[in-house]
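Researcher: Re-running this chain for the archive, since the previous output was lost when a drive failed. Same request as before.
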Amino acid sequence: QQTLDYTQSLYEGKLVTYPRTDSQYLSDDMAQTALDVAKLCDTYFGFGISHTPDISKVINNSKVSGHHAIIPTSGIATADLSSLPSGEKNVLTLIATKLICATAPAHKYEAVKLTGICNGTEFTATGRTVLEMGWKAYAKQSDKKNEEKALPAVSEGQTFTVAASKGEHFTSPPKPYTEDTLLSAMERAGNEDYDEDTEKKGLGTPATRAATIEALVKNGYVENRVKVGITGNALSASEATGYGVPQGILVKQVIEGGPCDGTGIKENDIIIGLDGEDVKSFADIYAILEKHKDGDKVKLKYYQSESGEEVEEEITLAADKG
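Model: Regenerated structure tokens:
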């Protein structure tokens, strides 16, 4: 929901196009505008592109339903981007990055599959050698988990001496949903029951899915177990003003044995900061935790509902960061 709020604020500031859309394409009449905006993104966000953006990759009238995809506007050329709140600036940078990546050259690689036989059993290995970085050169994050390493140069018939060991592994149960994975599941829900050309699929729309999750949390149907050892829900700006408290995460329960267990924080207190950064949503906490590893010590700042005081304590992130 916080991301939707940031994007809505950018739209009202005339820095991005209409945000309540699930389209990933632009209409034909936007080709020149999109090209101009892509060049502005390169100038004001410092991508350093050395190619002419291929706008044709994102133009498709048949796939624009209601409203086209979200892109920055020419307003970024005159706005003071440095004065934007960090959340809005991060969302705007992400939208600009997506436009640059979507119109950049293809990422090219050579895929190799190696097959070997040991004691009558066949083994395989796969690897990739990058030929041209293409759009991945401008992506802010890389999917390191799924990246394949390059294989050493070998020739057919070559023989190796290998060491083998026997191991035992166990399957893991499905992980609980995070906000991101639940939003994705809602978007894909029932897709297999619809034709490929069906205009609307899934549960809700981009404008309502986050609000639906928040309503479930507030009414007690699900728990949002924040990864610092508490469950709770995010207070909106209007709710915080109405209650006369800071905006942040309203604590419902402190998880026994979690990082917050043993601190002074308790039910109805409000988490307002972590690691020196303001916290107003679950997304803020997840973004901060991405910078840390197991066992790191971080400062947790919270508002005590009984005393009305702000308190800061140190907590140690557990193996699962929660």
